[in-house]
Amino acid sequence: MTTAPPLVPGIPAEYQPATGSAPGWPLVLYFHHVHPDVRHYTALSPEEFERGLEQVLERFDPYDPADLLADGGPRRPERPTVLVTFDDGYRDNATHARDILDRLGVRAVFFVCTGLLGQRSTRPREDFLTYQACDRLAGEGHLIGAHTRTHPHLDRIPATEGRVQTRGSLDDIRERYGPGPARLFAYPYGGVPVQPHLPEDVLAFGTVRSPASPWTADPQQIRRTYLPSGAADTWAALVHHWCSAWDGPATPAVAGQF
């Protein structure tokens, strides 16, 4: 039986993280920073990140991101699984998160802004991975996906500009990592435009702004949720609720979408 959703104090209702995925589909978590000094709703210190993932992995098996690229598209797993994702491509994803992921046996998808890669700064929120660092992550079994070139609000800019941003970043990923990873995309700010301008075979990930639909029903608006920063006392309840919801009545798949 699904438990009552836990509420995280101070977070507006539309951004509450309690809703995970449609029953039977992988729970998808998104992070931005793993850094001791960054304050952001999806930024955790290295110690918090490790502790939070450990709690999640008590109930969920790691989802292999390579399964996203399977022929015919991903299938519902037999057990509760979690897919870990990172947005924007910050350098601390490699300097702090990488070793923790390795220790816990987790492989992730890093959605990077291809036009910002290589930009360096003493400010963590302006300090990005290089392509070489992305290459190393890819070589270790992680996937590099597209997140536009410069991180605009796709739902607030002209459609022609949005197409350049989305298709351009997918082309950048395809050129370096091949056609498989170029089928993965995440919307900046979770803003899904009326016309996403994505190829039909692209799996596109939103945030808590997206509905918890089966991936086959809405493959270009996959819901993700998060471990809220500054609210570690709610994580156990969230993990329990996500797992209970995963075991709920499975929504029938829609054929022909993948």
UniProtKB/TrEMBL annotation:
SUPFAM superfamilies the record matches: Glycoside hydrolase/deacetylase
InterPro entries, sorted: Glyco_hydro/deAcase_b/a-brl (IPR011330), NODB_dom (IPR002509), Polysacch_Deacetylase (IPR051398)
Keyword Signal: yes
Compartment(s) of residence: Secreted
Gene3D superfamilies cross-referenced by the UniProt entry: Glycoside hydrolase/deacetylase
Single GO term (MF): hydrolase activity, acting on carbon-nitrogen (but not peptide) bonds
PANTHER family linked: POLY-BETA-1,6-N-ACETYL-D-GLUCOSAMINE N-DEACETYLASE, PTHR34216
Domain NodB homology: 80-258
Keywords on record: Signal
Keyword Protein biosynthesis: no
Lineage, highest ranks first: Bacteria, Bacillati, Actinomycetota, Actinomycetes, Kitasatosporales
Pfam families registered for this protein in UniProt: Polysacc_deac_1
Organism superkingdom: Bacteria
Name recorded for this polypeptide: Peptidoglycan/xylan/chitin deacetylase (PgdA/CDA1 family)
Chief location category: secreted
GO biological process: carbohydrate metabolic process
Any one of the GO CC terms: extracellular region
